[in-house]
Design a protein that fits this description.
Chains A, B: Keywords: Isomerase, tRNA processing. The structure is a homodimer of 250-residue chains. Chain A has 250 residues and is α+β, with helices and mostly antiparallel strands. Chain A has two domains: 94 residues, Alpha-Beta Plaits (2-Layer Sandwich), CATH 3.30.70.580; 140 residues, 2-Layer Sandwich (Alpha-Beta Plaits). Helices cover 20% and strands 31% of the residues of chain A. Chain A contains five helices and ten strands; from the N terminus they run E-H-E-E-H-E-E-E-H-E-E-E-H-H-E. In chain A, strands 1, 2, 3, 4, 5, 6, 7, 8, 9 and 10 form a ten-stranded mixed sheet that branches. The longest helix of chain A is centred in the N-terminal third of the chain and has 13 residues. The two termini of chain A are 29 Å apart. Chains A and B meet through strand 4 of A and strand 4 of B.
Chain lengths: 250, 250
């Protein structure tokens, strides 16, 4: 029985899930996808993602892989899987990859985007996909503050205290902030990887800078202190999107 | 007891409601707003909107008015009402208006927008706010077809057969179609008023033109026949937004 490895790109609305990863007592994206897969291949099949996303966090381009002996042309996989999936999970692409490919270990770059709704009144149409900040923000100051967060550095101050990972050094390549339409501000983070809650803590801290509660220069001090308690709050999950995962040959 | 008349602009996600207007056995936008009002003014208070919207239809700028003896500075009304409303209904503006103002009878122009998601695969983030058309559309042909729908005409063919209104003449000022971002197509309809389901039937018919099922010239014939059965299907409600209502002095 010859196994072939399939790489898939998936988008999901995380609002109804306890996160990407399988867990007890709460529905996960992984469980839904594995159930859909089993409906097609008829045997339990594990999937391996580029990384987990937290409860309530969305994805435009999460990547996972799985092995199967079932022969289906690659362009048929998205349609077959989507027919089994609920409408808040959509498989966008499937490709055959060499059996050495691994969605997690081969990822060389990730892009996350965070959406803010910055008007006094809330917006009904983005209420599940943005963080509502009702006071005014100085985007210029926020952009200045991002400079301290670029580069290969120890991000202990921007990592959930309960994280178990030892190596807290990550390389952030770029942080971009722009107002896409009036009131809608997107923060884009590109790096070789991100620690647990890292993007959301960076967003929470940048909001403190933008609202004048924390001085721009303070961000560098927070980073150097390697102490989670000094950074801002963890921004809520509904504004966060895993936007893209990059591999050597993609 | 001096009554003052308040005009409000409201946005709502219609997905969880049986429509704007009060009805038995199903929750309506009107009921939610009247309940919120009663929570503030402590007496049952009727609201009068520019018109009803159907089950599942959204609004960016629906307008209604009500009378009250309660004295609140106009800029406080949105905050007070929003505090009582669920998060899928947001009051955007409130202004004091003369007691002759009527949200329905004084409206001189309405704008509706309809959103299409035109890609083979569905999009999780617009699934509740757009109609997914998985086949390709010729937008040029659709634009040509809109020419027959502009002007002051009898729109019987584009009105739900069960509508009771006698006068089916309406003036459509403008229909615009543009691709806002890849795959996301917006159709904008501006006119002095629209019949029951009229925008959704125009959209259903334009989709038939865009997909090549109906010739451009056929739209003129459908209009002249004054027969609902000849026009296209009623497009689903989730793509439709009451965008704006215009008054003489606004």
């Amino acid at each position: 029985m010859q196994l072939s490895r399939i790489k898939c790109k998936v988008s999901y609305d995380g609002g109804n899930y306890g996160g990407f990863q399988l867990q007890d007592n709460v529905m996960s994206i992984q469980q839904r996808i594995e159930e859909a897969l089993q409906g097609i291949v008829k045997v339990p099949t594990r999937i391996y993602a580029s990384g987990r996303t937290d409860a309530g966090v969305h994805a435009r381009g999460q990547v996972f892989h799985f092995d199967t002996s079932l022969r289906i042309p690659e362009e048929r996989w998205p349609l077959a899987l989507n027919a089994q999936l609920p409408d808040d999970i959509v498989i966008l692409e499937a490709t055959h990859v060499p059996s050495q490919f691994h969605a997690r270990f081969d990822a060389i770059e990730k892009t996350y985007r965070y959406c803010l709704w910055n008007r006094r009144l809330p917006d009904v149409f983005t209420r599940k996909y943005a963080w509502h900040i009702p006071y005014s923000l100085d985007i210029g100051l926020m952009r200045e503050a991002t400079r301290s967060l670029i580069g290969e550095q120890d991000f202990t101050s921007f990592c959930a205290a309960r994280a178990v990972v030892k190596n807290k050094i990550r390389h952030v390549y770029e942080i971009e902030i722009h107002e896409e339409s009036p009131g809608q501000i997107w923060l884009t983070f590109r790096g070789n990887g991100f620690l647990y809650n890292m993007v959301r803590i960076m967003v929470g801290t940048l909001i403190q800078v933008g609202s004048g509660k924390v001085a721009v220069e303070r961000v560098q001090e927070i980073l150097e202190a390697k102490d989670r308690r000094l950074a801002g709050m963890t921004a809520p999950p509904e504004g966060l999107f895993l936007w893209n995962v990059k591999y050597e040959h993609s």
